[in-house]
Design goal:
By secondary structure, the chain is of the alpha/beta class. The chain contains four helices and ten strands. It is elongated and about 60 Å long.
Length: 198
């Protein structure tokens, strides 16, 4: 006896094209602010590991299949993150500009990307610390590219525990520190000695 259509979809083997379409829908959902950076990374990993069409459908069931005619109002993107003898913190649901700048002069900047809304294939952060510090917190499974130089200071990349998830954006940090420090930490870590909270 034939199965109902919904049951056939649940057991039908997923094709590479269906996986790519699901990933594209997830990325659109993240760009619209419907998924956080962390949620995107987790769902993309599950999409590439899915074996049936039903698994893929469950990953995108809460996202629109096509963009609505009138796009919802988006959060304002943040390009400049500046602390001069003070502090600047971005965390929770926020939207960094695809080309962001962080400057700390005798102060501190904390950029937590775990629940941020990321657009496009990469996020480039130009970070400048002069007698100050900048911390960038990235979800586990996200590729990080740290470059730049330090003079009487330090630039540090603390990798995460999970392998890089295919299909997720790359975070590129161009770090320039003078008597200061720039730390890029992958995974659920707090600032300071008590690192792991996962």
């Amino acid at each position: 006896m034939d199965r109902p259509p919904e049951e056939r979809g649940a057991v039908q083997r997923a094709s590479d094209g269906e996986r790519e379409r699901a990933v594209a829908t997830l990325r659109d959902g993240a760009a619209d602010g419907r998924l956080t950076f962390d949620e995107l990374a987790q769902r993309v990993e599950r999409a590439y590991g899915a074996t049936t069409a039903g698994e893929l459908e469950r990953l995108v069931v809460d996202l629109p299949a096509v963009a609505p005619a009138a796009a919802p109002a988006r959060r304002k993107s943040r390009r400049w993150n500046v602390a001069v003898m003070g502090g600047c913190t971005r965390r929770g649901r926020w939207r960094p500009s695809p080309r962001s700048i962080a400057i700390a002069v005798m102060g501190g900047v904390d950029l937590d990307l775990r629940e941020a809304t990321i657009e496009g294939d990469e996020l480039v952060i130009t970070a400048v610390a002069v007698m100050g510090g900048i911390d960038v917190l990235v979800p586990d499974g996200i590729e990080v590219d740290l470059g730049g130089f330090a003079l009487m200071g330090g630039n540090d990349h603390v990798p995460g525990k999970a392998p890089v998830r295919a299909g997720t954006p790359v975070v590129r940090v161009r770090a320039f520190s003078l008597m200061g420090g720039i730390d890029v930490k992958v995974g659920h870590r707090r600032r300071g000695r008590h690192a792991d909270v996962s």
